[in-house]
Task: structure prediction
Amino acid sequence: MNPLVAHHLDITRRTLLESSAYGMGGAALSWMLNRETGAAETSLPPPLISSAQNLPGLPHFAPKAKRMIYLFQNGGPSHVELFDYKPQLRELHGKPMPEEYLKGRRFSSMTASISNRLVLGNVEPFQQYGKCGAWVSDLMPYTAQIVDDLCFVKGMQTDAVNHAPAISFLLSGGQLPGRPTIGSWLSYGLGSANQDLPSYVVMTSVSKGTSCGQIFYDFYWGSGFLPTRFQGVKFRGGSEPVLYLDNPDGLSRETRRGMLDDIQAANRMKLASAGDPEIATRIAQYEMAYRMQASVPELTNLSDEPKSVLERYGPQVTEPGTFAHNCLMARRMVERGVQFVQLMHAGWDQHNSLTTELYTQCRDTDQASAALVLDLKERGLLDDTLVIWGGEFGRTPFIQGDIANRKVWGRDHHPYAFTVWMAGGGVKAGFTFGESDDLAVNAIKDSVHVHDLQATLLHLMGVDHERLTYKFQGRQFRLTDVHGKVVRAILS
Result:
């Protein structure tokens, strides 16, 4: 017999009277909440949509990319150490930075008061690779082998000089928390191609033993003022990537289905009377969780992956919670229709650890990043999957620390010229766009602001960044605020 039915048959008179009393209290509370909801809601939000549908009129034009994987490197990878080769830095190593390069520039409080900033040369040599002749540091040997598949943007600029505001700015268009991130905008506008997995998934990692890891705030994948069903779903490292998916002991899947049906019926009645979009979120998330009970175990089971594929991603690939494992999971997700996968790897904040922890960061991310691009390419997915690699800003060409003590060399945050790379999904391969000056301080040619990058990413997904808006507090908001231009020169 169904255990719920058995429970109702066994109920006593005393229990019935007690529960009825609670029920009357609940009814009274519901009536009061309805009054408050009616008083507070002067206008309802845009029509509620299923997570499987796209907004009317979207995509605005044929997309070049159907899905996106953002390999976000928290902490600010040093562009002058990795991809932006400047021979003059080594020539001027240990000498004062020419003041004309830094005039009017704002830096973090850690180096803002330094009057005599000394040039720091790149810690490892650079070489040219591929037919395109791109310069890549010896710290990134695997990425160096795929440069003919990459599009480097070397004139990136942002408005923020500290981590959390800069990450929020890049992912949501605002330095303060509370605005939807790009994955939420795409989920809201384009819906989902898979009913059994979220359209927006986030995974985080940090190198073992690092002392400069960044905090992963939930607003880095938040939906802001959009309904919360469009926020990113975080998959954890470990044996249970999503909490509370398993049924308790003694509760069958059929019984769970019956419980959900009853809950959904109550929620739909409440939604019809209140119009609260968060009730629609509750309905959608209950259903998604039920379907994920079957889809997540299949997704995370790597037994069907060939040994050659696992070896390509590196020795950490089978260890949940590592960047390598997350990269392979990202490929498996986009194969199954997940639209936006955001991998966040912390530890790039080398204020005094360029000669130690930078090497660890590169070792833990370089091979897996390149493997992901090659894996997608071999499976015919790269052409319509956009992969992005980069952080919230770069690092200063001048030193933070003692120039005479190599063990504690470091660099401060640098928002005026940094590098990201992209692959697949409608961008030119083997191409470099933009240029910094001869000391990698300022973008001097084809600069790309964060809002321009956001506009370009939406464009590649078939979305006009000026037309995807949401009315909040009397104003139409968009990812790019009132800025942003599509960088058409990098489009294939």
The longest strand covers residues 150-157.
